[in-house]
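Students often ask what a holo structure prediction actually looks like on paper. The answer is less mysterious than it sounds. You provide the chain, you provide the ligand, and the output is a string of discrete structure tokens encoding the 3D arrangement of the protein together with lysine.
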Amino acid sequence: MQLYGTSKITENGELSIGGCPVSQLTETYGTPLYVYDEDFIREQMRAYKRPFERAHLPHRIAYACKAFCTIGMCQLADSEGLWLDIVSEGELYTAIRAGIHPSHMCMNGNNKSDHELRYAVEVGVGLIVVDNFYEIDLLASILHEQNRSMDILLRVAPGVEAHTHEFISTGQQDSKFGFDLKSGQVQQAVKQVKEHKELQLVGLHSHIGSQIFDVEGFRLAAHRLAEQYAWLLQNYELHLHVLNLGGGLGVRYTEEDTPTPIETLTEELIAVTKEAFLTHGMDLPLLMLEPGRSIVAQAGTTLYTVGSRKEIPHVRTYVAVDGGMTDNPRLALYGAKYEAALAMRMHEQPTESIAIAGKCCESGDMLIWDAPLPQSHPGDLLAITCTGAYNYSMASHYNRIPNPAAILVKDGTARTIVKRETVEDLCRFDVRLE
Ligand SMILES: Cc1ncc(COP(=O)(O)O)c(C=O)c1O
Ligand SMILES: N[C@@H](CCCC[NH3+])C(=O)O
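The corresponding structure tokens follow.
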């Protein structure tokens, strides 16, 4: 199993994260437990900024908090000077509760409700990424009512096929997101925006997908967008000074994944975007990025306790843990692959290949199909790495399983960022029939 960030193996073969031996963490917080490595998260955020700072380029890095959205996580992003990319009332509310200034937020979403847009306008969200024709008029009318104006970007579907799972590919022409570039919807949208003095169009936005390993898709998107910037300048005398290329940088879940490191990819992104704009004799606009997964995925490890075992001769051995698809639905949804280790016996060699199952009443409730591990016993601690993104945020209560706690570890100290749910919490909204 590959270790990330501050994760280490102690002399007696125990996994430690952020200077905290995992047995101490689980003794205090129980299992399943999401453990987040604070230094590593901060380092990922800084890696995005360094290339811009080195080149003295204006930039905005907005953490796409959908990857892991809690008050503490929003505070971390803010403390590193990042904006937040939010997509719903809930994310906006969380960010506000975290004390983030709304002017440092960018709001995405393909079906923002009247209520959500009103909320964003009232608090003064810095930038709204308008996704469709309906939203242009809706947002304009809300702003008009309140006698306000707002900076917006237009979300563009640039017709780029990102090489990733089809469920997380978003830049292709056949997508629910954004204005279709190929059929001229972007120019049509700009025309419609120009009819509303409340909407200040400052740039375009594209997000080609998630878990992307190289710059090629971004290069194509940058070229297609630069062409639009040039066209809009020529035909409408519209000088757009912001370009948002979205998020999407991939991470290593297993050895099959070979992502470009954040700093290198960011340098490449700057270079390809510069080149694209130069082709049209234009300067690089203020570049905005919205990374989610690459900030938090590898900084997260989930700790479980091993329970039952089922050996099917000549077929497979299942070992079940005290969590599963409720805290990590990514195998069930995308066929995602992970690595695991027995967290107290990190020095031991694997002796068998097992299937790690969850505890839900569902055959698809699996975490890993073939994990090479030493023989495990009930009560052993099992660690699955790279579970920091889209795990907690997509957790469910299936089978009325409470969500685990999440903690942040650093320099030998642990802090709770999300409390463990209780079964009482699960009944909180139920109404007893009288
Ligand atoms: C508009 C937008 N921005 C940013 C992100 C973050 O993507 P990722 O977590 O892959 O960096 C997403 C999710 O794919 C998105 O839809
Ligand atoms: N939920 C997806 C990522 C979606 C990206 C958001 N647009 C995943 O777990 O990989």
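Residues 66, 168, 210, 330, 334, 390, 394 surround lysine (ligand 2) (CB under 6 Å).
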